[in-house]
Amino acid sequence: MRNSTSIGNPHAEMQSSSDLLKTIVFYSNCEEDAAAMIRLLGPARQLGLRVIQGVEHGKVQIDAVLNGDIIIIQRDFCRDLDSYEQILSLAHTQKKPVVFDLDDLIFELPENHTDRISSFYADALLPMLQAIMEVDLVTVATPSLRDYCLPYNENVVVIPNYLNDSLWIFKEPSNSTPSSGKVTIGYMGGHTHKPDLILVLPALERIVKKYPQKVQFQFWGIEPPPELAPFSRVDWCPPKSSKYTDFVSYFQTQTADIMMAPLCDNLFNSCKSPIKYLEYSAIAVPGVYSRVAPYSSMIEEGVDGFLASSASEWEVSLSKLIEDQDLRRRIAHNAQQKIKQHWLLSQNAEKQMQIYIDAVSNYGELKHPFPSFYSIEKSLTRQIFDEQHHKNQQIKLLLDQLNEREKEALFYAQSKSRRFTWPFRKISQRIKKGFR
Q1: CB–CB of 39/74 below 8 Å?
Q2: Residue 73, burial from CB neighbour count under 10 angstroms (0-12, 13-18, 19+)
């Protein structure tokens, strides 16, 4: 039996509002990570929709398409070009809309980004571009990302990232002075944010010199910059799980007095969502954020957060929060009020539902003209994919042959005949050396 996740809601009134949409088929390489939970699985649970996972134990289930009302493909899944094209073809044969969901501008990774250096997405870029041009609907996290995708498909809509209030429980802003007498400055993020931490490092070095006995640092996820170690106490909690629900449960037990969200000012970061603002605020911690698009359009300076561009601005904003406990509490309270009014999933999931319902009901009207370079892009994508597949097959064959030889060598080394003749071969080798 297919591994489907029935994501029911205990409240009957939250059940699907239309018979057009009851089941989603979801194809993703990371089924329970933050992108999957925030963008699809969390909203589906809120809406009482059934989700069929299109990938079971690493194997793509093409025929899962037959059991869904709408097909959603996320991020780099389509690097498996053969599976993606079969899914698209079968869905269109069944007159079911295919949605491509993108939450980051992976096409514009900065040169110093960890995933750019490792070429993690390199083989997925052309298939992703092909998918954007071919699918019926593209959903993105921000208006900036929509603007980037529009030249390739006119059917692009924004589904913002909201705070899932069925997972996050708002903490009350603290009124008490830290028992240690020190103010904890925290940062939460993955290893890909190393350039962003380097950006704010000069300001942090100034802070520890300015408050040598008053501040300490806590990092969750990425390892802290070694430059901070000589100056102040620095604690680090490495990632414990790739599941978003595990992260939420753990992070809500953590404490800090101030949180940071530095971002380098580039096209990639300008298309990000302000998810850190939502998550930091949920645990009632005020923050200082880079003055870039994800945060500058969200935060009211000095009211529900602080924005900084230069090292001096970072130092000034951090200093204000370090020195004023009442200010920290007020900023955290205001941020929570804003989120409760505008950014809770429970208040916005129906909007996402309507986008999907419209895609199903208007399937025949979603057709759009392909860009002029579509044919050549598709040809290049196929040629590169086939070449890489051929190389992968050759590598697999060589590895299989190597494994067989290792097994033969191990068998020979463990055989009785080898153990019996070993002393005589050693003597023979010595005799031969003596005649040279």
Answers
A1: yes
A2: buried
Helix 311-323 to helix 194-210 angle (10° resolution) is 60
Question: Which bin fits 305, alpha (ψ -120 to 50), beta or left (φ > 0)?
Answer: left
Q: Which residue reads 């089941």 in tokens?
A: 23
User: What is the tens place of the pLDDT at every residue in 32-88?
Assistant: 899 999 999 999 999 999 999 999 988 999 999 999 999 999 999 999 999 999 999
As to burial, measured by CB atoms within 10 angstroms (0-12 exposed, 13-18 middle, 19+ buried), residue 177 is exposed
Task: Please give the full DSSP string across 91-150, using - where no structure is assigned.
Answer: HHHTT--EEEEE-S-GGG--TTSHHHHTTTTGGGHHHHHHHHHHSSEEEESSHHHHHHHG
Please report the pLDDT score of residue 395 as a whole number.
Answer: 83
Bridge pairing between strands 23-27 and 50-53 = parallel
Cα angle value 209/211/213 (rounded, 5°): 110
What does the alpha-carbon distance between residue 64 and residue 87 come to, in Å, rounded to a whole number?
Answer: 9
Both structure tokens of 59: 């194997």
DSSP H helix total and E strand total for the chain: 16, 15
Task: Give pLDDT, residue 425.
Answer: 58
Distance CA 236, CA 289 (A): 21
Q: How far apart are the first and last CA of the chain?
A: 71
pLDDT-based confidence at residue 302 (cuts at 50, 70, 90): very high
> Which 3 state secondary structure label does DSSP give 40?
helix
Above 50 in pLDDT, residue 5? no
Signed CA dihedral, 343, 344, 345, 349: sign only: negative
User: Within a 13 Å sphere around the CA of 214, how many CA atoms are in the beta-carbon half?
Assistant: 16
Q: Which tokens go with 367?
A: 């057709």
Q: pLDDT exceeding 70 applies to what percent of the chain? A: 89
Distance of alpha carbon 327 from alpha carbon 333, whole angstroms:
10
Taking Cα atoms as reference points, which of 36, 116, 50, 130 lies closest to residue 85?
130
d(CA 204, CA 210): 10
